[in-house]
């Protein structure tokens, strides 16, 4: 018999913040702190959103109602809302109190920590940005590694055509694909690779990591910084290159030798309620780690 599952997992291509009548303000009123809330909300990184959604699905299918999680909890259906709008949006939603948890695919900035105040953060896993190309790109047969300098010249537009990189390649324009400039992925790439040099103005800004990967898959002249997890989910459809001769493998990402890596973080303002703690315990459990691994990322535990 099919079990009734109360679950709303909303993965949006682009959300600037959770606003309007579709959301509920997270109430910080002292009189309501102890009130059991059967639902919780996550907002932020489009890389982490599908991971939280998958873990939430497993959590709800296993329990359905909160009393199955803990017999001291009421018999209420579990509802977990997940919205993707970028790491910055996730932090903003926590600061403004429009979601319970923010999701980030980058480090938390000092000024963000200050604004959140009483912050609780959970590092769920590690991701990396791979410099990836289409498998039909002739570069695949020519070289399997790019130097940081070469990557910088490609993404800045100094190398505009593939034969600028190597004279044996075709005189075809390089199609550079990036995440939106305000996203966590681009912040990591800018800091790790570009430094003070800006990406070319005509680079395609993808609204999500999935959209970025799709652009590389559909265009043999494209190059972009695809998430390690997305590469693992699309094996053979795009080719990740080494950076400075270092391959983006799990071992190299964990030991730090691959330079373009980033944490996957959930952040909360204030103490967790018992029901929130129960879900985060599940996220950080072996089962949660299995799901993180299955989705192509490196769990932290």
What does this structure look like?
- With 301 residues, this protein is an alpha/beta fold.
- Helix content is 35%, strand content 21%.
- The protein is built from 13 helices and eleven strands.
- It has helices spanning 49-63, 66-69, 87-96, 110-116, 139-142, 148-156, 162-165, 184-194, 209-218, 228-233, 250-255, 274-283, 286-294, and strands at residues 39-44, 79-84, 101-104, 119-133, 145-146, 175-179, 204-206, 222-227, 239-243, 261-269, 298-299.
- Strands 1, 2, 3, 4, 5, 6, 7, 8, 9, 10 and 11 form an eleven-stranded mixed sheet that branches.
- The longest helix has 15 residues, at 49-63.
- It is elongated and about 70 Å long.
- 41% of the residues are buried.
- Residues 1-32 have low confidence and may be disordered.
What's the count of strands? 11
The assigned structural class equals alpha/beta
How large is the share of residues in beta strands? Answer: 15-25%
Can you give the mean pLDDT?
89
Please give the oligomerization state of what you see: single chain
Distance between the termini: 35 Å
Major sheet: 11 strands, mixed
Helical amount among residues, as a percent range?
25-40%
> What is the tally of helical segments?
13
SSE pattern, N- to C-terminal:
EHHEHEHEHEHHEHEHEHEHEHHE
Poorly predicted residue ranges: 1-32
**Rg, Cα atoms, Å:** 21 Å
Shape: elongated
Describe the secondary-structure layout.
Elements: E1 39-44, H1 49-63, H2 66-69, E2 79-84, H3 87-96, E3 101-104, H4 110-116, E4 119-133, H5 139-142, E5 145-146, H6 148-156, H7 162-165, E6 175-179, H8 184-194, E7 204-206, H9 209-218, E8 222-227, H10 228-233, E9 239-243, H11 250-255, E10 261-269, H12 274-283, H13 286-294, E11 298-299
Parallel strand pairs: 1-2, 1-3, 5-9, 6-7, 6-8
Antiparallel strand pairs: 3-10, 4-8, 4-9, 4-10, 4-11
């Amino acid at each position: 018999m099919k079990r009734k599952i109360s679950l709303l997992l909303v993965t949006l291509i682009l959300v600037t913040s959770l606003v309007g009548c579709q959301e509920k303000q997270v109430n910080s009123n002292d009189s309501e702190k102890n009130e059991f809330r059967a639902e919780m909300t996550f907002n932020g990184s489009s890389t982490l959103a599908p991971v939280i959604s998958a873990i939430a699905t497993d959590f709800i299918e296993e329990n359905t109602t909160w009393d199955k999680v803990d017999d001291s909890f009421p018999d209420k259906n579990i509802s977990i809302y997940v919205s993707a709008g970028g790491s910055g949006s996730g932090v903003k939603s926590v600061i403004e109190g429009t979601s319970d948890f923010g999701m980030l695919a980058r480090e938390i900035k000092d000024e963000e920590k200050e604004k959140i105040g009483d912050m609780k953060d959970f590092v769920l896993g590690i991701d990396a940005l791979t410099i990836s190309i289409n498998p039909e790109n002739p570069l695949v047969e020519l070289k399997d590694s790019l130097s940081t300098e070469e990557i910088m010249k490609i993404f800045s537009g100094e190398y505009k055509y593939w034969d600028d990189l190597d004279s044996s390649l075709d005189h075809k324009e390089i199609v550079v694909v990036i995440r939106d400039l305000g996203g966590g992925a681009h912040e990591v790439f800018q800091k790790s690779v570009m430094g003070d040099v800006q990406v070319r103005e005509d680079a395609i800004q993808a609204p999500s990591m999935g959209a970025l990967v799709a652009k590389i898959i559909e265009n043999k002249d494209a190059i972009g910084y695809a998430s390690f997890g997305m590469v693992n989910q699309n094996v053979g459809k795009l080719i990740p290159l080494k950076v400075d001769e270092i391959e983006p493998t799990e071992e190299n990402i964990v030991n730090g030798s691959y330079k373009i890596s980033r944490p996957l973080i959930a952040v909360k303002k204030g103490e967790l309620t018992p029901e929130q703690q129960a879900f985060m315990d599940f996220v950080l459990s072996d089962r949660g780690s299995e799901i993180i691994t299955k989705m192509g990322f490196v769990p932290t535990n």
